[in-house]
Amino acid sequence: MSKPPIIEIRDLKKTYRVGDVDVHALRGVDLTVGDGEFLAIVGHSGSGKSTLFNILGGLTPATSGTIRMGGQDLLAMSDTDRTKLRRGTVGFVFQKYNLLPTLTARDNIALAEELAGESHMHEPWFQDVLETLNIAQRLNHKPRAMSGGEQQRVAIARALVNRPTILLADEPTGNLDTENSDAVLDIMRGLNKKYGQTILMITHNPEAADFADRKVRMKDGRVLEE
Length: 226
Ligand code: ADP
Ligand code: MG
Description:
It is a single chain. This protein has 7 helices and 10 strands. It is α/β, with parallel strands linked by helices. The strands form 2 sheets. The chain has a 6-stranded mixed β-sheet, sandwiched between helices. A 4-stranded antiparallel β-sheet has the order 2-1-4-5, with helices on one face. Strand 9 and strand 10 (about 220-225) form a beta hairpin. Helix 3 runs parallel beside helix 5, helix 4 packs antiparallel against helix 5 (about 150-160) and helix 5 (about 150-160) runs parallel beside helix 6. Adenosine-5'-diphosphate binds near residues 16 and 47.
């Protein structure tokens, strides 16, 4: 028997009010993501990709629609419950890594743990993740002493340390050269295959999208299957 979907989005809408103008960023998104899927989301700038992620990550409220995540109705929950669910469920990776510059790689990862009130850093599976990411030798470095590729791999470790059900990556290779980009994508695919990690990745780059199992396109605030 196949597992139930990990994310079910139905008729999701988001309208931003800018001065007197309504900006319809999402106009009715329907999307189902299977447990353990590696999904690429492509689409032109302004098509609503980041808005969708910010809503999935609980960073932005939706205007209407439904999101079921791991069987729970995300938009019907209280803010407190949604924050709790998000901390345990969603890990975020951004284009610009967003590591704190004054902290070492290890402390950047540890801070994410502390915020979630959990501790997995010393568990064997996380040591294994660090090996996979090939940053075990870099943990005492601060971001400025690391390459972009290394920083992004630390950011992925930080996103994974709380064992999120879903990893959301918004243009994770947007700042990387081809070599580092391929290394990061290869590792994400490896994490997906080895741990069954569900990954949603936004990308502009068709070659990056080819690392995923499935590709959808966002256009004018809607999702189209490729
Ligand atoms: P993408 O990530 O695909 O480039 P976005 O989700 O960032 O698209 O943007 C979708 C639309 O929503 C765009 O028209 C953008 O200008 C608008 N938008 C995004 N964020 C905001 C915001 N915080 N306030 C007002 N408009 C926004
Ligand atoms: Mg964007």
